Amino acid sequence: MSLNFASKFSIAAILFSLIFVSLNINVSAESTPVPEESSSPEAYAKYLESKTKEFGLASSASDNEAKEALDAFNLLNRDEQERYLSTINDPEILKDIYQTIGNIKLDEDQDAVTEELYGGYVKVTMERNDDKGFSVQDTFEETADVNTTVEIAAVNVVQLNIYMQYTTENDPGQSCCTVSSVNSTSHAVVQNYIPIQTLNATPREPYISGDTSAIFSVLYTLSLSYNDISVTDGSFVHQLTGTGAGSSFAEITNRNLD
Question: Minimal CB count within 10 Å: which of 83, 127, 172, 230?
C-alpha cells in the first residue's frame, strides 16, 4: 500500500528530527576547547617548567614561585592532576574563585585571612608582608605590602602583590601622626599559572585622604581565552591603605564579576 504525501512528509520530518538531535548530542558531547598548555598533566608540567626559566640564573629555587608550583603539581597523583586541570580549565569555577577574591578584606589587626571554596580544595588568602617602619626625627617611613594568593590542590596558581612606601609625621594637634607623602608604589601579577586566563593590571595614582591615610589601588581586568579568542570576563580593584599610625589594611572590591 503506497503512502500518501502527508505520511511521507511526517516520516521525513521524523527522520530529520532524529538526525538533528543526533548531531546536537555529538556537538554537546565534545569537550570544551582548552589551551594546549593545560590539556594534559604532561603538557602542564612542561608549561610550568618553561615558567621557571623566565626567572633566569639570578633567581634561587627558594624564591622561584614557578618552581614551587611545579614541585607541588608533581606531588599530585594522576587523578589529582586531572582534577586540578579540570578546575583551572572550567570558566564557572574560575568565576566562583574571582567572586571570592572580589570580596576579601584584610583588617588592620589581621596578618592574614583565608576564604575556602569546594571544601577547602580552593583557598584564597590575603596576607600582610609589611616591614617595620623607621623614624628620622619626627618623621616615620612606613611600608604597606600585601599578597593575595589563589591555591588549588596545594598549588599556588595566582599571586597578586601591591606595595606602598609612605611618610608620616608627628602632629601636635592630633593623637598621633599625619601622612605627608607617598614616596613609591608597585604592583605585580607574581603568579598566573592558569593558561586560559589573562590578568591585565592598571595602577591608579596614589593619593592622601584627610591627611591621615595613604591610598593606592590597582584595577585588574580578567580575560578568558578560547581558540585564540579573548573575552573580557570582569574586573576588580585591589586597594591598599596605610594610616598615619603606621598600620595598614587592604581589600579587593568586585567591579563586575557576577
Answer: 172
pLDDT at 10 over 60: no
pTM more than 0.90: no
**What's the rounded Cα separation, in Å, for the pair 154 and 88?**
13
* The C-alpha cell that represents 25 in the structure block: 548530542
Contacts of 238 by beta carbon, 8 Å cutoff, 6+ apart: 148, 160, 162, 187, 217, 218, 220, 250, 252
Among 75-84, 134-143, 219-228, name the most confident range: 75-84
Q: Residue 116 has which C-alpha cell?
A: 575556602
**Max intra-chain CA distance, the chain:** 110
Cα separation, 222 vs 201, whole angstroms: 9
Q: What are the cell numbers at 178?
A: 599625619
Cα distances (Å, whole numbers) of residue 17 to 6, 10, 14, 26, 112: 16, 10, 5, 14, 58
Name 123's bridge partners.
116, 151
Taking the chain, what is the end-to-end CA distance rounded to the nearest angstrom? 62
